[in-house]
Amino acid sequence: MKRRTFVLGAGAFTGMGIVTASERWQSKQTSVSAIPATRNFTVSGKATLRQRAATKGLLYGAALQSKQLETDSVFSRAIAQECNIIVPEFELKWRTVRPSPSVYHFAPADKLLSFAHAHNMKTRGHTLVWHEDLPSWVDSALNSLNAKQILTDHISTVVKHYAGKMHSWDVVNEAIEPKDGRSDGLRNSPWLTMLGPEYIDLAFRVAAESDPKAVLTYNDFGMDYDTPFGRKKRMLVLNLLHQLKANGTPIHALGIQAHLHRDNPNFNPDSFSTFLQEVADLGLKIMITELDLTEKKLPTDTTLRDRTIAAAYEDYLTVALSQPAVIAVLTWGLSDRYTWLSTAEPRTDGAPVRPLPLDAQMKRKLAWNAIARSLDKTTQRSMIP
Predict the structure, then answer these.
(1) What is the DSSP secondary-structure string of 296-342?
(2) Which active-site residues does the annotation give?
């Protein structure tokens, strides 16, 4: 399976003749060479990310697969040490959990839940409704007459199986796609085709009925950068959230995937902060759900590459965590040993990618430092959510 990535273009405000403080800040971040060699990534103390997050009333975690825990004891120890929340990378997607209309395969995800329980960790569910990773039987069986029942049965069965055990669910994933040209911005997915826009409200209501205690999240990508695409995506996502709230839909949080691109950035801290505040003003919590960074255009030199990636993480998380509504940060993987970017976004020079907090030998990198520093700098929340 793939995750979503996107290449970011130049900002739309170039040439307007007005240079703001954030644009001056941004201009210093647009090239690798602009990161000062003296930039300090020193971390105080020896606390883990899990401990640093908990101290501030936050969650830190990562995506992983059950087979990684089963076959890699060093990795499993690192997960237990660094994370207080985990998310199954594949185990709860339709293709894995429901291989046929009448069969649900919970064993792989159950193993992750058992691991989390044994190590006093929370678990996120990913994902109940998505246009990708659908088993072949959906294409052949789904029609306008049975789609509502199929979707309702799936959400109800999966969520009830984990009722009281799941911290949160990505109920609907990536439902917005500006390129599809609809005025409401909705993606032309099988669910939209068969059920219309109401499928989103339906999914949240069924999930809420099946587990009233879980945090129910809308999850999407492309909201991080101040580009024409990013601004459009933010607007459409906000419109969707406003509509759901107005309809009384039981939605509790926005998940921001945060698949970053440090080689071609256009990160405006002011506009991103404003977007986060607009979400918070709706009474929603915010989670950074899939943080990583595509670095295939960065230099081969690992020292320079690691500094560049760390700078991107710290710059981004400093802004994100300054918003009190942000309750969790999850990276899409913990160690470079297991990252989807190795195959989805490989480097042209053949060098291994290094996007995550720990390297392939489970050693802490500057990316770990950047996350730790961001957690240390943020304000105290009242309690772990």
Answers:
(1) TTS-S-HHHHHHHHHHHHHHHHHHHHTSTTEEEEEES-SBTTS-THH
(2) 174, 290
